[in-house]
Amino acid sequence: xxxxxxxxxxxxxxxxxxxxxxxxxxxxxxxxxxxxxxxxxxxxxxxxxxxxxxxxxxxxxxxxxxxxxxxxxxxxxxxxxxxxxxxxxxxxxxxxxxxxxxxxxxxxxxxxxxxxxxxxxxxxxxxxxxxxxxxxxxxxxxxxxxxxxxxxxxxxxxxxxxxxxxxxxxxxxxxxxxxxxxxxxxxxxxxxxxxxxxxxxxxxxxxxxxxxxxxxxxxxxxxxxxxxxxxxxxxxxxxxxxxxxxxxxxxxxxxxxxxxxxxxxxxxxxxxxxxxxxxxxxxxxxxxxxxxxxxxxxxxxxxxxxxxxxxxxxxxxxxxxxxxxxxxxxxxxxxxxxxxxxxxxxxxxxxxxxxxxxxxxxxxxxxxxxxxxxxxxxxxxxxx
Length: 384
Ligand SMILES: [Zn+2]
Prior knowledge:
This protein is of the alpha/beta class. It has 15 helices and 13 strands. The protein has an eight-stranded parallel barrel with strand order 1-2-6-9-10-11-12-13, surrounded by five helices. α5 (145-161) runs parallel beside α10. The longest helix has 24 residues, at 250-273. Bound molecules: zinc ion. The site of zinc ion has 8 residues, from α7.
């Protein structure tokens, strides 16, 4: 049984500052009873549409850092941080951190590890690359040494410059993210397994890492090419899944294992640089993480990004044993019946999770807050 459970509500700094930091903290930690607040500090490009004070509101940002970075932390990397245009000269994180400090409210930051706005588009030589040698406009490849050094510097910068309860890394993964872009047009319906293979990175750094481990990238690339081409021709059997492909395709399995090892090694460096808790999103989808489970998720607490994972007894046992966390998306909170939100949060607490992370303050309709308040109380009671 889990003695305590903490809860964090995530928010975009602009939503917190627009409504007033004190107002939001009163609401999140007072009225709703959450333990603390988590705000984005390194943001991917975002478009958000929601209702605020009964009026439709559209936010668009190319992304970037939402704090003033200290240059000394990034000297080991040719990748230099880019501050989001709307955060320049404002340092939203410092203002929120000061208010949290004053109230002794735990503050976490959320960080996009590979998709922070504009970085991949400006540094195609450090971006993930598909088997077609197309550099991603959105995702960096963390196998690239400059990207690795940048992420280590980012963790050190954030945790040394602010009083934080944790740094929460999202999208810490090696993949060509355009493969999952909903605007990617294809002639036939492309199965998830095809998108997953399409997302496998074959950038120079990944090829070199494979070579250094004695693994040839060419046969892995040939296998990816063959499956993607079959998928696009509509001739891939419906029973083909990643596990069956990897069972028959040892070169690809070995290549993906090298990438998992690269991520594990980098994760250790980031943990060592981070002077507060490190939390990592464990992606259930795309499913490579499940098929290639070798990334050492025990280093930081891992966050399950899908509530569906709760229905998998083995996953719950594994996560609970590691005192990990679970994240509810704003969509899940806003669309599920209130009673289900409340009971699920109780189930999470009973399953032994250490924390519940709730997305995202600015997107949640007013009608969901009562269920969240009840859910947090129920989770606390269920945990105790
Ligand atoms: Zn790569």
